Amino acid sequence: MDAVRAVAEPRRREILRLVWDEELSAGEIADRFDVTFGAVSQHLKVLRDAGLVTLRRDGKRRFYRADREGMGPLADYLASMWAARLDALAELAEAAEAAEAAERDEKSEGTTQ
């Protein structure tokens, strides 16, 4: 499977996001999902076969990390997609905070009059 088709699946994109900046064990990755360990393991295999993650073994444990170099231009696309989502989330949080502050101000003005 090619890299673009591999990341078309939302759980695989989420796995990539989890291992983007840090190495995680297969168990740590699986703990973050509401599917079986076997399902996550299959997703990891697809990502590995597509060259999107690297695998390091330490005894019985397997550790995964995003292979940004192996992704080529796809790495820049994914990074910008996640950055845009974070920017949108930050904007929503700021708007909610401003709305709460305005509501507090209205309530405090109402009690002083």
SSE layout and pairings?
Layout: H1 3-7, H2 10-18, E1 24-25, H3 26-30, H4 37-49, E2 53-58, E3 61-66, H5 68-71, H6 73-112
Antiparallel strand pairs: 1-3, 2-3
What does this structure look like?
This protein is an alpha+beta fold. The protein has one domain: Winged helix-like DNA-binding domain superfamily/Winged helix DNA-binding domain (Arc Repressor Mutant, subunit A, Orthogonal Bundle). α2 crosses α4. The chain has helices spanning 3-7, 10-18, 26-30, 37-49, 68-71, 73-112; strands spanning 24-25, 53-58, 61-66. It has a three-stranded antiparallel β-sheet with strand order 1-3-2. It is built from six helices and three strands. β2 (53-58) and β3 form a beta hairpin. GO terms for molecular function: DNA binding; DNA-binding transcription factor activity. Residues 1-93 form the HTH arsR-type domain.
What string gives the helices and strands in order?
HHEHHEEHH
Major β-sheet strand ordering = 1-3-2
If classified by CATH, what would the architecture be?
A: Orthogonal Bundle
Largest sheet: 3 strands, antiparallel
Shape descriptor reads elongated
First-residue to last-residue Cα separation: 68 Å
Which radius of gyration do the C-alpha atoms yield?
20 Å
Structural class based on helices, strands and sheet pairing: alpha+beta
* Individual helix count: 6
Uncertain spans: none
CATH homologous superfamily classification: Winged helix-like DNA-binding domain superfamily/Winged helix DNA-binding domain
Number of domains: 1
Mean residue pLDDT? 81
What fraction strand? 5-15%
Q: According to CATH, what is the topology? A: Arc Repressor Mutant, subunit A
Q: What percent of the residues sit in helical stretches (DSSP H or I)?
A: 55-70%
Question: Can you tell me the CATH class?
Answer: Mainly Alpha
Regarding quaternary structure, how should these chains be classified?
Answer: single chain
Number of strands: 3
